[in-house]
Request: fold
Amino acid sequence: MNTQGKVFKYPDNVDTDVIIPARYLNTPDAKELALHCMEDIDTEFVEKVQRGDVMVAGWNFGCGSSREHAPLVIKTCGTGCVIAKSFARIFYRNAINIGLPILECEEAAEEINANDEVKVDFDTGVITDITTGKIYKAQPFPAFIQNIITSGGLLNSLKEGAKND
Amino acid sequence: MGMTMTQKILAAHAGLTKVEAGQLINAKLDLVLGNDITTPVAVNEFKKAGFENVFDKDRIAIVLDHFVPNKDIKAAEQSKTCREFACAHCVSHFYDVGKMGIEHALLPEQGVVTAGDCIIGADSHTCTYGALGAFSTGVGSTDMAAGMATGMAWFKVPSAIKFHLTGKLPANCSGKDVILTIIGKIGVDGALYKSMEFVGEGVKTLSMDDRLCICNMAIEAGAKNGIFPVDEVTMAYVTGRSERQPVVYEADDDAEYEQAIDINLSEIVPVVACPHLPENTHPAKELHDIKIDQVVIGSCTNGRMEDMEATYHILKGKKIADGIRCIIIPGTMQIYKDCIEKGYITAFIDAGAVVSTPTCGPCLGGYMGILAAGERCLATTNRNFVGRMGHVDSEVYLASPHTAAASALTGYITEYKEV
Reply:
């Protein structure tokens, strides 16, 4: 699995309230919600994002509310991957559970610039900044989590587990 | 090396004699919680995955609290989804309008959560129940769906930060000032992935409402959970209330902590978290020239009886400053009723405040107190992110009920004793 696209760069402590403001949470419909992804800090994101593009952010990405709508709208917009220095724990868990690829890599998150063209290989954790030519290596997931991701999310992995019992 | 209190609870629920930080475990759940925003997503996932039954109808709690009484047609549809699911699966702890309260005020009050429990909730402030000596943590809707179906959840066993409390809080401070001070010290990711374990002589001086408030905001430091030891205050609270027998777990004497932080409660002062992060704390008295437009007293952080009492003692016989909208929201129907019986609500209204039935409404910018561009609110809620309570150009300041009530009387951020 991999993704390639343009970088949208964000600061530290991007919270789930700006990823998807609560005023829109009167619907669980991901497509409708996705129209408002990031709008409180980046009004152009939804208009500009293309399938496969990559979000790059600082520390504690996805802090705040447990709303699963947050990784869901990022994924629904077509974002191929989020790279951050660190993720808030509920966001991290939710992203894995719904199948949004995320990678923790401090160096990449620091150095990659907005609008760079980036390629990410999830199997190896290798991040290539095509614009600068620089290559980074993210921490791989533990096997247990890798299994949830390759199954296509938590519920699929539970179903597969039940079949194997 | 011994285990922390959190690790002890997780080991017991995973059927293991020993766990250590970083270990991945599968643990048995005592309760799975959701609200009117997160449950509809979980119901979709539950159905999509083909699950037919919930693991135990008595171990699931669904509380309609964010947008009820329904704020609009879409919110009504979400409530309906929750109601139909709860009915179809005979969920015994389903709380609809008239019975509901803000989930993290309601479940401890109703005895649905207790000491020694292992709990997940599709709401980030599920960490509140650590005040009772439970392991309790926020998750997303897919985890809620899996929890409802299987009664199990996977966890990475957390390491811990020990907060050693000494002394006793000054009269104008409460649990809110303690947790805001701690977040100001360690930052919004200062406890990322970790437990915040509160210990020491100072613990016994804190009321249950203070402890619930402190654990409630553990997530605002990035923590997986916050937890207090079980003592006489806990037992007095849970006895005759809990529907399950409380189970007491204690940290081992040789438990390993990543860090130990001393907090002298006697030195705490009233603090305010300024926009746009809960770590941006300053003493309230340094902010006295900041003019506000609105005050909100309520939420899962500060909508409990002691919060209403503090507000009453400051507002009774006084008038809210001109130009200030003061919105007071008791956390549960029981608290609402107690406020009526004690004459608090009359006093609030006479002071010029408005009183709502329980709802999370304004805290997350849902309804019941949305801010316009340029407006400032001083709130006893838990988050002051960009746009949290309304327009992206509005501002939220976080404080205790004492500070919020005192500020409502002056129209500026005010330390209580200054009034």
